[in-house]
Input
Amino acid sequence: MDMDKLMATQPTTLLGKWLTDARAWGADADEKDALERNARALLTLWGPRGEIADYASRQWSGLLAGYYYARWQARRPPAPRQTCGAGGGRVTRCGGWGRSCSSST
Output
């Protein structure tokens, strides 16, 4: 994912650094785990039961490819199966997701 690679060029937009920094504050393994959970929740799900999704979403490397991309794929409708030229001159979707073409007739 190109956007994830781009965001990886800046230390301030790295999910791994955010989580490592959060864990560094913990005194023992249990506290480190709790701080990491809180750091992840801060970026993804807010509220007592996580009912406020994406309130503080970030465009960070690691979140884009590892978290958001899977969600985008799950929500994306299937690509149309029509082919270019079908439809007697009407515009049809073809050639892959999001592309359109029209027949020459």
Summary: The chain is about 40% helix and 10% strand.
